[in-house]
Known about the structure:
Blueprint: H1 24-32, H2 42-45, E1 55-69, E2 72-82, E3 85-87, E4 91-92, E5 94-98, E6 101-109, E7 112-119, E8 131-141, E9 151-154, E10 159-166, H3 168-177, E11 179-181, E12 196-202, H4 210-215, E13 218-219, E14 224-228, E15 234-238, E16 240-241, E17 249-256, E18 265-268, E19 284-287, E20 292-298, E21 302-307, E22 314-316, E23 330-332, H5 336-344, H6 363-369, H7 373-390
Parallel strand pairs: 13-16, 17-22, 18-23
Antiparallel strand pairs: 1-2, 1-8, 2-3, 3-9, 4-19, 5-6, 6-7, 7-8, 9-10, 10-17, 11-21, 12-20, 14-15, 18-19, 21-22
Amino acid sequence: xxxxxxxxxxxxxxxxxxxxxxxxxxxxxxxxxxxxxxxxxxxxxxxxxxxxxxxxxxxxxxxxxxxxxxxxxxxxxxxxxxxxxxxxxxxxxxxxxxxxxxxxxxxxxxxxxxxxxxxxxxxxxxxxxxxxxxxxxxxxxxxxxxxxxxxxxxxxxxxxxxxxxxxxxxxxxxxxxxxxxxxxxxxxxxxxxxxxxxxxxxxxxxxxxxxxxxxxxxxxxxxxxxxxxxxxxxxxxxxxxxxxxxxxxxxxxxxxxxxxxxxxxxxxxxxxxxxxxxxxxxxxxxxxxxxxxxxxxxxxxxxxxxxxxxxxxxxxxxxxxxxxxxxxxxxxxxxxxxxxxxxxxxxxxxxxxxxxxxxxxxxxxxxxxxxxxxxxxxxxxxxxxxxxxxx
Length: 391
């Protein structure tokens, strides 16, 4: 009997019965960029309908941080693990604590929404440590951890496998020197960071076309993109321009989890959804540029590497050059000022500053976050009980 090979789309079906003629890369990019439908792809996208995905539940691990934002304190799910696979959640849709259990609703992949439940008592322990690894239950549909959106992980050694894409000369230099220098540029690629540098990694295995370039915050044609706010305001900004052909070398590097900085977050209001859920519209946090993984290092330095397998896999080694990895920015989707900030990573004072500009609690942000998925569900349940109670 032939061994079942799960389809890379994450449906949980045999690939021969799902998407037999599509490469994993094409499946991933089509799903990831479905909002930018290419000519002739309307019918093609119907092949990725998730309505038939079966419900599934897994016992895994969650790497989570308890962080402060202008909307209040939240649990930030940094990475979810199952066996030798890991997924970085794309959104935080709502959170609720009942007794000692916390449930985080999120989008694991563009195909898989999930509810992640963990015991908050597991967070108690070493003081001052904001990021913890806890056991969790993952309720979702299909098989997200067998999809193209899962990355290779070694949970026992606290590592994930990421990629660095460059040209042949730079790739040879990195391998021969066993050292990778940090970049002095911000995510936007247009301004130098003032206090530190970043080694930029990605979960994209190969840079093939314009969609891959966009996922690492670049453009292959022109240097201008539009930022669109939740209010549909638009602003044109400059980003780094590069051709996919300029990055033919892909280095696979194992990265200790503690090295990776949290990505910036954007808090969106309910009206920003492209389509509403069964519960209607709700506010949610977007994980900004989820395919980019940053390692903060001291300015003009980098990290040493070592070979760990016969396949020439590399591993970053601990160094005094590492900087604190817990810093991230937050933006409000309706505020163009803060949206610019997560791109530029530079705070330019505005005429009428808001509390959020200084990282303080902000009533506007709090009001938006109060309309998250958990609050919407809670309101629906109360209305239903009221109807039953009152007859």
